[in-house]
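Appendix B. Raw example, untouched.
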Amino acid sequence: MSKQSAHASVAKHEATRDGQQQSQSSTSDGRSQSVKSKDSQATTKTSASYFTAGEWAFYATIVIVGLLLRWTLLDMRPYHHDESLHGMYGRYFYDFPNSNYYKYDPMLHGPMLYNSMRFIYAMFGDSLWAARTPVCIMGSLFMFVPYLYRRYLNSVTTLILTGVIAFSPTMVYWSRFLREDYWVISGMLLTLFGFTLAPRAWKPFLVSLGITVQWCTKENVFVTVAVFIGFLAFEFCFRSFILNKKDSYIGRMGRFVQANIPLTFVSVAASALIYCWFYSAGFRYLEGIKAGLGGKAIEYWAAHHSMERIKGPFNFHIYVTAWYELPIFAAILTHMFLFYRRAIPQIQLCAALVGMAILFCWIGIEPGSVEMNKVWKLAKLKNRLDIVGLLVLLFHAPLVTIQHMLREERSLATAGYFFTATFFSYSYLGEKVPWLSVYPLVFSLPYLGLFFQDYFQKNPINYRAFPTDKALMIVGSIAMALGLIFIAEQWTDPNEWFSLENRVFLGFGIFVVTVVGIAKMDASGRNADTTFLGTMNVGGWIVAIAALFSIRAAIQTNYLYGGKETEYLSQVHTTYELAEYAKNIIDEATYERHGFKPRVYATGESTWPLTWYFRNIPNEYRFSLKSPQEISEFPYIFLSWKEKYDPGEIPEGYIQRRINLRGWWVPDFNQISFKKFFRYAINHYPWNSSGFSYATLLTAKDMERFRK
């Protein structure tokens, strides 16, 4: 589009919207205007007066519930394979810092986590609870980020975002999981703080330190940097060549560096020194400095991206968000509707063309042919649903950014780009693992918060006095529509047309719509007020229901089903069965229940996490033998499971038992329906069976022969 037509469209659209806004505000009861006035003055408040007394009480309650969700029974869930690796390599570093210091390995990521484990073990010991505390601390502190950025948010938005973080099932889950991702998020926040809130003298150091923290933690720093550079380039080109303006972010950064060359140099040098210290293990392993620069990591992860070691659909992170963060997913869909509703005609046209392309692909492509198509295979698509996700994420990112840039909404443009571009980037990456879903989720929060705050300030709704009958009609219509959709999906199976779920949704919807409709007609016939049920605070109800739903989902995900094989989030998690066997053996070795300390031998995949569980009985635990005959000296033996063993692999005198080692659930997308999708999001009920990897546990029949 040309510059003139773009500006003309924006001006025309804004004029229409302003006229609608004036008309709407003139018919309101004045309350929405007072809310708008309060929002516009949010940045002028002091820290103490930012919230009212009642809001402070809500804020404290949110934080307390968030802390309870994170810290209660922190050691309940068995140690995941990755957790055992991180915990043990941190223990090696702690026990022998001058010889077993961490040497960079892309599979184990950067040295930051292992250095933190040394301090944790020194302060709290090396229990499972203690090992998870550094991540839990950072996950707890993350709840205070919205308040830190209150300059950009009104009090209601800050409370909602704090609640989203505090009650988020996935954010709670990864706050209770020994991985590097909260270190990465902390580094991102340091960089953001440096760009936004930091005093001028601290800006270059905090920006470079944040990047350094990410670099010393995990290789996805390259994804973050690539997204950031892509935004700077896009914003520069758009403002220079479309808007004909010279105040791009690149220009601002260049002018700042030029005016603060000594400060910038010292900051970068200090961050480089920190990087070198971590990767060289305190300058004891100088080769690590070069190893951490990226060549080794890029080669390693490029190979994993190509082979897709852990395969998953392109929509993997969309499913994780929808199934574990349903209120946020609903907010994302609502934002898309509102965004395109008020977008300029050119943006709406582009969205319509994308919608037509999606419909064409859905109709014209055979369900089983997607993975065989070279174009779709290049994008790593697995099914037709992936085509929908690809086209939406691919085009929504630039459309969001362009629309906000045309309106000079620079904060929204920046937040929107990082949210949508990050969502696309991690969807495209070949290896699909659930912890990567936290990055699109984290980037969604500032954008959604700013978007809805901006939208409702410019399009005020008197949500505190919303007609109750209208709200009930909306609820009833949605329930009825869901019931009809469920029946339509099962049209070929008449026995399922009126299953319990279908009857509940359809019957409830019809009942509510009918009752409200009859009452409205009766009131209209008597010339009475059609808002016969009065008004309600619909915003409060929506927030309360979303909060209660999220708390319930957080309890399901982290306590009721935490680590279970039926959880999409628990990918290849160690089973409770294996953990209980390990704990029983540890108990026998510690208290000599049989009059001796039993020895344990482990091979194959069972080595991790058993190495962690048996870390405090090192004299009794082995994962290698001097000779094959030595195996009969162990009363407990964990072997890689086989259907049939060759003669001689199983020594005489042992009871053989197959045990579950790790479990997972891989959805069968050929069987998926909206009802199954919705059922999993509500109750975490999978629609096909789970899978396991196994180990074989050999237990000696005669324990007396090991007594010495």
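End of appendix B.
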